[in-house]
TrEMBL record:
This is NF-kappa-B-repressing factor. Residues 297-342 form the G-patch domain. InterPro entries: G_patch_dom, R3H_dom, R3H_dom_sf, R3H_NRF, XTBD. Residues 343-407 form the R3H domain. The gene is LOC108006416. It comes from the Eukaryota. It holds the Pfam family R3H. PROSITE patterns: G_PATCH, R3H, XTBD. Residues 1-34, 127-156 are annotated as: Disordered. Residues 46-130 form the XRN2-binding (XTBD) domain. GO terms for molecular function: nucleic acid binding.
Amino acid sequence: MSAKSKKQKIENAGGVETQPKQKKVKAKNQADAGYGSGEFSLDWDVDSYRTEYESEEHWDLRRSFMLAHKEKFEEDRLVCLAQTFINMEFMGCKYPSETMRLVAEMSKEIAEEFRRKRDQRLKRTFVSASDAAEQRAKGRRAAAARPADSPKDSSNRLTRERLCFGGGEPIDLYQDLRFGPLILYLAGGRNCLRNSCAVANCKYEERASLEQPATDMTKYVEVLVNDEVVATGQGENLKSAKLAAFKQALLVLQSHCYSIKLNATRETIKVEKSKTGVNINVTKESADSLGDPKLDASNKGYRMMRLMGWAGGGLGRLKQGREEPVGYLLKSNRTGLGAINQQLDLADYKKLLQNYLNSDDMRDMQFEPNFMKEERASFHQMASRMGLRSSSFGVGHSRRLLITKKVTYSQILTEVLSRRNPKFCERYFVQVPMQKAHLFPGHVAGLELENICE
């Protein structure tokens, strides 16, 4: 043993403090998300990475990004990701899709807060100055004519405030997109793509593959949009091949088109009758997301069938029977002895729907099952005359009527992405195509289509 090592050993034994070991942190195992693994040091100074030519705004954003993820990444990798984030945010740079997804997910909260502050600052500095200069140039007549602008013009001004720097042209949401204004509305199971293409006036087709002829064991199907093959699929039969091609087409189109999905846990205006009149409340359970109740251990019939040897599933030798109970209709258009006769005043409900139509409330209006069939039919007719959308969900005594406002898919994108309207953001989820991920990093999370096999 060398003299130096012996001396160090004696000093340690004598109580002399030695240099503390470098603090190390083990990264969380998140390989799928692109996070680092193994052990790395936290003993490095974020501020040492500021360059002399970097502006205060750029550095504050890059510094916040590194501080937020310092415990999750190695130093070199995090510095690179932070610079990538700055390049995407300020210069619109593009990177491989995996990198852009990772950076967008990491910067979601940081970017949203930065854009909110920037919007407020730009609105005060440039828009207000532009309006003042315009009023001085055009004089009092232009200033007096401003209140007479149509609501459409007013909304256009709001869009310019949100998306423009110093009075430029608004951003075109569909610029350079492969399928143009095609927007996917994720509802309706297998009819999703066909319905979305019909709204956008695009041609949609599923056909047997022309390049790969079918065999006895394998069938091939291709999906076309505007006569362009976007996906192919194969299966043991034509049905399974169509399903495989549909799933592949959905993935391809979602990477090139905007996707919209209704929030199943959105707030709904619940309208129900009671002995004292009509109650109007707010609920998180929408009629289109409520499933029909199934048999469970609390049901007497369920217990009887279990005693007879039933182990669950459908009835029959091959368990091909239905699993849920047969629905029944509750006859509610006749009142019994002692019932309170609640006369329906259609004029009051017409006024209720009219007020709902004239408001900016985007929540659904849900009429509960204690309204009779004839009453629901009247509401359907009233909604149709007012330009509202009405639909019924459930069977028998659990049937509900849902009345909603009609909005276009492009309007949803404008309100959610451009104006960040909280009434629309609470109601709809939006996924942007990869080509627009650098503009809206908070909306890159994938949306899934439910009931895809229907």
